[in-house]
Design a protein that fits this description.
By secondary structure, the chain is an alpha/beta fold. The chain has 12 helices and 7 strands. One of its GO terms (molecular function) is acid phosphatase activity. InterPro entries: Acid_Pase_AS, His_Pase_clade-2, His_PPase_superfam.
């Protein structure tokens, strides 16, 4: 139901752009759960519009995942990133914090469950049961597993997950931002109404065809994975002031340039990129929101509302325009 609600919210937020004859262009990466999320979103969007969304499901463009398929909504085409020297960077960076934070929890669990011999890794899995069981329930009722751990232990768990996303896919991974370059170049094309210029992870066959990559829509909705979203944030220059996040102690999001996994890529995470023209101004502005928070990219000069002039915003995406570090893939 969360994605149905997200579709309704999207319609209400951009209702003036969603007039009767206007339809969002929707893409989804080929994973079943991602496609289902896109379908539920479409149902919610058209329900809020007073229409039956079922007949619009076939309009969703599903981009295949897997070897040999370029897909900006699912990383996997850069061999050096997937299996190179830094492929285990996130795991390595998580280890010190896991030893500090999870050891007392493991000891408590083993004391309460004689003979269980729960390991550190299994302690994390034990805590994973809380969020996954919660979202799996029909009414998203908070799982009883959640009550087994204290608030402070959950803060440690969140930081553990934040390290994984940051060092695995974010700015701290040498090739992390490069995995988001293809999507950012597609975004540049949409904002500038010009053909996609990219030699990284874009699908040239799809992106060169107006029916599979239109440039004249008012609304677009793409459905991806949390890890790929982290690479896109990094390529956009979001959260990049905190390239080093400590692994031996927990710091607040405020000290990490606003970053934490729960704020950046929770279940059902959303990034909105808004292009707007305000009042009598003769220039257009761009604003980026991550889960309803305005997050100004570092490459442009934002006003007090977090907006950048379109030209300045596009100029700040030079990393993506140059293909990032794709030559190292």
């Amino acid at each position: 139901q969360e994605m149905v609600k997200s579709g309704k919210k999207f319609f209400k937020r951009y209702q003036k752009l969603a007039e009767d004859s206007t339809h969002p262009f929707v893409r989804a990466s080929g994973s079943e759960r991602v496609v289902m999320s896109a379908q539920d979103f479409v149902h919610g969007f058209y329900k809020a519009k007073g229409k039956n969304g079922s007949k619009y499901l076939e309009d969703i463009l599903v981009i295949p995942e897997g070897n040999g398929s370029n897909n900006t909504l699912d990383h996997g085409t850069c061999g050096a990133f997937e299996t190179g020297p830094n492929a285990e960077l996130a795991h390595d960076r998580q280890a010190p914090w896991k030893n500090i934070w999870a050891t007392p929890i493991m000891e408590r669990l083993n004391a309460k469950l004689p003979g269980a011999k729960i390991t550190l890794e299994e302690t994390v899995y034990f805590m994973d049961l809380c969020p996954f069981n919660t979202v799996a329930s029909e009414k998203s009722t908070v799982s009883d597993f959640c009550r087994l751990f204290s608030k402070e232990e959950w803060r440690g768990y969140e930081y553990y997950e934040s390290l994984e996303k940051w060092y695995g896919y974010g700015p701290a991974n040498p090739l992390g931002p490069t995995q988001g370059v293809g999507y950012v170049n597609e975004l540049i094309a949409r904002l500038s109404h010009s053909p996609v210029q990219d030699h990284t992870s874009t699908n040239e066959t799809l992106d060169s065809n107006p029916s599979t990559f239109p440039l004249n829509r008012l609304l677009y909705a793409d459905f991806s994975h949390d890890n790929t979203m982290m690479t896109v944030y990094a390529a956009l220059g979001i959260y990049t002031n905190a390239t080093e996040i400590p692994t031996d102690r927990r710091v607040s999001p405020k000290k990490a340039d606003g970053y934490s996994a729960s704020q950046a890529v929770p279940f059902g995470a959303r990034m909105y990129v808004e292009k707007m023209h305000c009042g009598g101004d003769d220039y257009e502005m761009v604003r980026v929101l991550v889960n309803d928070r305005v997050i100004p990219p570092k490459g442009c000069k934002a006003d007090k509302l977090g907006r950048c002039e379109v030209g300045d915003f596009l100029k700040g995406l030079d990393f993506a325009k140059k293909g990032g570090l794709w030559d190292q893939c």
